[in-house]
Amino acid sequence: MTGFGKASLQLAAKKITVEVKSLNSKGLDLNVRIPSVYREMELGLRNDVAARLERGKIDLSIYIELTGEQTSTKINVPIVHAYMQQMKAVLPQADETELMKMAVRMPDALKTEREEIDENDWVEIQTVIQQALANIAQFRIDEGASLEKEFELRIGNIRRYMQEALALDPERVQAIKDRLQTAISELQVQVDANRFEQELIYYLEKLDITEEKVRLTNHLDYFIETLKGAEANGRKLGFITQEMGREINTMGSKANHATMQKLVVQMKDELEKIKEQVLNVL
After folding, report:
1. CA triple 257-259-262, angle to 5 deg
2. 192, 123 in Cβ contact below 8 A?
C-alpha cells in the first residue's frame, strides 16, 4: 500500500502541483490539504481518491503557486489614509513615507478578497490530480510485482523445509520407538507385548504430522492462488498466513526431534517475512 505520486502543470498565471503519499493501514485514512478556495470540492475529491486507492493512510496535497502579477491581497486605501491622518495629528513634522510604512503595518491595512472558483482552473487541477493518482497507482503496481516474486520465494522455501521435515519422519518415529523400548527395559518389569504395541501406536498417532502437512500444503497453494487474483486481497492473504502459522506451530509441538524442530523454526522465519510484506499488499 505504500507509494508516492506527483504531478504538476504550469498555467498562464499559476503552477499547480499535486502530491499523493500512501502508507500501510488496515482501512482508508485520507488526509486532504487543499487551498481554501477549492474547499467545496473536497467531498467529491475524497470519493474519487477512495475509489482509486481503496486502502492506506493517504496524504493528498494540492499546491497553487501564483506565477503571474495577480494577487488576492489588496491595500485597504481608505484605512491607510485614515491611519496616516491620525498619525499626522500626533506627529505633524513626520515624513509621509515613514507614516506610510507605519500605516500599512496597522490592523486592516491589507484586505484579502475572496476568490471565486474558476471552473476552467478546477478542470486543469482535476487533470493533475488524476495524473498524480495514476503515478501512485503505477508505483504500487511496480512494488506489487516485486512483492509477488518475494512471496513466491518464501512460499517455496516453506515447502522445501516441510519436505525436508517429512523426510526425517521415519527416523523420528524409530527414535521414539527406541527411546520408549529403552525406558521399558530399564524398568526391568514384564510388559505385555501386544499392549505395549497398542500404546506405542496410540502415542505415535498423537505425534503424526501428516494432517498438518496436508493442511499446510493447501494453505500454501491457496496463498499463491489468492496472490494471482485480480481483486484487492491483502486482508485475505493475512488470514491465510495466520492459518499457515497454526499448522507450522502444531508441527513444532509434535516434532520431538531436534533436526525437525530446527526446520520448523526456519519455516516460522520464512512465514514472519511473508507477514511483514503482506502489510504492503492492497
Report:
1. 105
2. no
Give the Å distances, CA to CA, from 186 to 189, 193, 197.
Answer: 8, 16, 17
Over 80: is that where the pLDDT of 275 sits? yes
Long-range pairs for 47-53 at CB < 8 Å and ≥24 separation? 48/129, 48/133, 49/20, 49/133, 52/133, 52/137, 53/20, 53/22, 53/28, 53/133, 53/136, 53/137
Contact of 45 with 32, CB cutoff 8 Å: yes
Phi, psi of 138 (to 5 degrees): -65, -35
DSSP string of 156-174, one letter each residue? HHHHHHHHHHHHTHHHHHH
Instruction: Specify the 3-state DSSP secondary structure of 143.
Output: helix
Residue with cell 477512495: 50
Element (H, E) at 211: helix 210-227
* 44 touches 117 (CB < 8 A): no
pLDDT tens profile 17-29: 999 998 888 888 8
Residue 220, helix vs strand vs coil: helix
Say if CB 255 and CB 172 are below 8 A apart: yes
**Cell numbers that stand for 95 in this block:** 515624513
- The three cell numbers of residue 7 are 504531478
pTM, rounded to two decimals:
0.65
Q: What is the pLDDT of residues 88-129, one digit of tens each?
A: 888 787 777 887 778 777 877 776 555 555 677 788 888 888
Residue with cell 486592516: 108
Give the type of residue at 261: Q
Which grid coordinates belong to 238?
493475512
